[in-house]
Design goal:
It contains 5 helices and 10 strands, in the order αααββββββββββαα. By secondary structure, the chain is α+β, with helices and mostly antiparallel strands. The protein has a 5-stranded mixed sheet. Strands 4-10-9-6-7 form a 5-stranded mixed sheet, with helices on one face. The protein is elongated and about 90 Å long. The N and C termini lie far apart (about 85 Å). Bound molecules: copper (II) ion. Copper (II) ion binds next to loops.
């Protein structure tokens, strides 16, 4: 068979394969992609992951079709003498097509990815101390402090109270300020779609807005010493009234220790002399 015959069949099989796989990717795989749809950031990550999958589906199908086609169509029948095929010295139409198609895909993803970073106020990975993509409107700042081997949380709007629990109000834009007191940690709240580095001396800002109430997992995602694996917790997203009563209770409970806390600050520098005793 002539080369064009093979190319036509491979192209046809790729189109048919893509038409079958694409709806499965969009309607079955896409909605089940991590990290779910409990926050605006998480939903946006699911959308972006789905778009990435949709763009790569035709390429993946093409490669698999090509591989399988080659395995079956170009198989030497038993007993034939093995010889090289005729040499191929360039094929301008396919070279140009490949360059145009892959460049278009990569450029689209670069532009789409950049636009999405702004649309969802960062990727949930922390944008450093001076975020360039900010939500409009008011935010509730919540500080996340990593230390060997637990997270604590400070609420500057509520007198800088520090608590070992993370409770967030639903439908409010949260501005996490993630930092560390000792080594490098990583604040990972899977269901919120947030995974932000917690580095000593650094204020790492990440935004999130929970759209559903419920529990979420908190883990340290940076190997930070002996009890790193012990550094996990469960956080809660609750409605506004529950949040207000919870934070009032925390302020009451922690008032006696408040005088020992340093004033609220975006970073803390523990005094090693004092720590050494
Ligand atoms: Cu840690």
């Amino acid at each position: 068979m002539r080369l064009q015959g093979h190319a036509g069949r491979i192209a046809g099989l790729t189109v048919v394969g893509t038409a079958i796989v694409l709806p499965l990717v969009i309607f079955v795989l896409g909605p089940n992609m991590p990290p779910g749809n409990r926050t605006t950031g998480a939903s946006s990550q699911v959308n972006d992951n789905t778009v990435l999958l949709v763009v790569m589906t035709p390429f993946t199908v093409f490669i698999l079709v090509y591989l399988l086609y080659a395995v079956f169509a170009f198989r030497a029948s038993p007993g034939t003498e093995l010889r090289d095929g005729p040499p191929i010295r360039g094929h301008m139409p396919s070279q140009i097509a490949w360059l145009v198609v892959t460049s278009a895909a990569v450029l689209f993803l670069a532009i789409f990815g950049t636009a999405e970073l702004f649309a969802s106020n960062g990727s949930g990975g922390g944008e450093g101390p001076k975020p360039i993509a900010k939500p409009s409107g008011s935010v509730l700042p919540v500080q996340v402090i990593g230390q060997q081997w637990e997270f604590t949380f400070r609420y500057p709007t509520y007198g800088g109270v520090e608590t070992p629990e993370l409770v967030l109000p639903v439908d409010r834009e949260i501005e996490f300020h993630v930092t560390s007191l000792d080594v490098i940690h990583s604040f990972w709240a899977y269901e919120l779609g947030v995974k932000a580095d917690a580095n000593p001396g650094v204020d790492n800002v990440a935004y999130v807005k929970a759209t559903k109430t419920g529990d979420f997992q908190i883990r340290c995602a940076e190997l930070c010493g002996l009890w790193h694996g012990y550094m996990f917790d469960t956080g809660q997203v609750v409605d506004n009234a529950q949040f207000e009563s919870w934070i009032a209770g925390q302020r009451k409970q922690f008032t006696p220790v408040e005088k020992y806390l340093p004033p609220y600050s975006l970073t803390y520098h523990p005094d090693p002399q004092a720590r050494a005793g």
